[in-house]
Amino acid sequence: MSRDHVQPAERPRTGGAAGVPDGGPEAPFLELLARGAPVEAYEQPVLLARAEGGPDDRIAALERAKLLALRVRSELEGRRRREAELSALFETAHDLAGLRDLDAVLQAIVQRARSLLGTDVAYLTLNDPARGDTYMRVTEGSVSAHFQQLRLGMGEGLGGLVAQTTRPYVTDDYFEDARFQHTHTIDAGVRDEGLVAILGVPLMLGPHVIGVLFASDRRARHFERGQIALLGSFAALAAAAIDTANLLSETRGALAGLERANEIIRDRSAVIERASDVHDRLAELVLRGGGVHDVAAAVSEVLAGTVEFTEAGTAPAAALEASRAEGHAVRHGSDWTAAVAAGGELLGALVLRGHRDLDPVDQRTLERAAMVTSLLLLARRSAAEAEQRVRGELLDDLLDARDRDPRLLRERAARLRADLDATHVVLAARIDGPASDADEEAAARRRLWSAASHLAATRQGLAAARDGGTVLLLPLAAPDTATDLARRTARDLGTAVHQPVTVGASAPVTGLAAHPDTVTAAYAEGRRCLDALHLLGRAGDGAAAEDFGFLGLLLAGERDVGAFVGRTIGPVVTYDERRGTELLRTLEAYFACGMSPARTKDALHVHVNTVAQRLERVGRLLGEDWQSPSRALEIQLALRLHRLAAPERH
C-alpha cells in the first residue's frame, strides 16, 4: 500500500457545519478508509474545515478522527502485509513439500523475499567446504555479471559477519560500515551492482551456518524488525529446502547403491552358479578319463569364450612365465593365460581368447581348470611312462643293432606310431650349465629325458637316455632341414626344463628298419656336432654337420665329400658342364696366383678383362662374399677335393 500511486484528494461531501459530513467527524475518514485512499488524503477534511472557519472543537474532533483513521489504516496495512507474507511463506512451504528442483525452490524464495521486502536485489550465498569459501547460489534483480559470479572468503564481508555470529545483520550504508571485514573483491562487486543498504540473515542447519540470504537496496534504507524476521523465515525455508534436497540426494544415492549391490549380488550368484557348473563338469571329466582338450571345451562353454590348451613353446612367453610365478591367470592383450605346471615343470597353458575384462570368479575358474589340466597331464604322463620306456628300448635296440629283423622293428615302431621307413634325423641332446651337486645333475637329466620322451611321442619319434644326455630319433618333414629340427628341438627342450639344452644333429637318414646300424653312425655324427657346439661356445643352440662348412666334413661319419663339394662350388661345376666354360680352372689359377687377377691372366694366357668377367660370373653363382677368408678357404678345399675325386677331368 505504501507504494500505491497517490490519487488527487477528493473533496469530501459536506452535510453539516464547517463542511463536516453528516454523521460526525469520523465519517469522511471512514469513507477514505473504505476507498483505500493514500495517507495524504487524510489531511483534506481537516484542511477544508479550517479553510471554512469551522469551530475549534470540530477541528480538534477531526484531528482526533484523522489520527484514529490513520492508526486503523496502518493496522489494516500491517494485516494485509502480514497476510501477503504468510501467503508467500505458505506457498514456499508448499513448494518445499513437493521439492523436485532445488534451484527452482531457491529461486522462488529469493524472488518472494525481494517482492515482499520491496528491495532492488535479493540473493543467496552458500558455503563451499571443498574450496573453503562462499559463492553466489541464486540472485534476483542483479544486473552485474561480476556480482553474480562473486566468491567470498570465509569471514569476509557482511556475510562473513552473519556466518560468524549466526545472527542477522543490517547496514544502512555498506561502504561506511566498519563492523565487518571489507575486501577489494567484495567491495568491487557490491559497487558494480550499486548496492547501499544490505540485510543478511543466516541459513542454519542445526548449529551450522551453510549460507546467507540477503535483501539489498541501491539507496540508503532502514530495515524494520518485521522485515528482518520475514527474511529470517525465508532463510529457514531455504535451509530446509537445501537439507531436504541433500536428504533426497543421499536417499537416491543409497537407492542407487542398493541397486548396484543387488546387481552385484545377482552377478555374483550367476558367477557362483557358473563356477559350480564348471566344477561339476571338470569332476565328471576327470572321473571318465577326459583329456586336456575336453577341459578346454568345458571351460569355453561356461565362460562363453574360446579356451585353448597350448604347449609351453607356443604360448606367450612373458605371460606364461608371469602366470607360473604368480600362480594366477594373467592378462596378455585381450587374452588371459593360465600356466599349466607341475612342480617346477611348465607343461603348457590354458589361454582364454578375446576377454579383456574377466570377473575374478571366472578368473579363478580358469585357474582351477589349469590345475585340473595339470593333474590330467600328470596322470597321462604316468600312463605314458611305460610307453616311453618302450620307445627308449626300441631306440636302444636300434643304436646297439641288436634286433636285425626289419619286420619286427617295423611292428614295434608301428605300435608306437613311428615309421622307420620315413626320413629321420638322430639328435644328441645335453643340458648345459653347472650343477651344484650330483643329485641336482641327476634331477636335470631326468627332466631332460622326460621332456625328450614327451617331445618324441608328440612327433611320432623315439627317445632314450644315453651318455649323460638324451638321444632322439625324429622324422624330418619338408621343408625342414636337419639344422631347423636341431634348433627347434634345443628351444623346446630348453623351455621345458628351464635350462639351456644343446642339440647336435646328424644328416638325414633313411631305411632304418633295413639298416639299423645307420642309427649308430648317425648318433655318432650327432655327438660330434654336439661336442663341436660346446667347443665353439654355442651352448644352448642346435646345429647339424652341414652348418660347420669343411668342419662338417670332418664331423660327418661317412665323410660325404660329394655333398660338401656340391654345397660349396656346385653351381660353378654345373655352369661349366652345361656351357663348356672354364670357371673352375680360372678359380684354381686365381687362388694359386694369390688372388691376383694380373698374375692369373698370365697363368691362363688370357686378357685381364677375361679374368675379371669370369670372376664376376663366379660371384653371381656363389654369392658376393665368396672371397671372404672363410668362404675362400672352403672353396679352395672343395676345388682340391673335386680335382681328387675326378682326376681324369684335369
TrEMBL record:
Residues 1-27 are annotated as: Disordered. It holds the Pfam family GAF. Residues 1-13 have a biased composition (Basic and acidic residues). Coiled coil: none annotated. Residues 101-252 form the GAF domain. It comes from the Bacteria. Belongs to the CdaR family. This is Regulator of polyketide synthase expression. It comes from Streptomyces collinus (strain DSM 40733 / Tue 365).
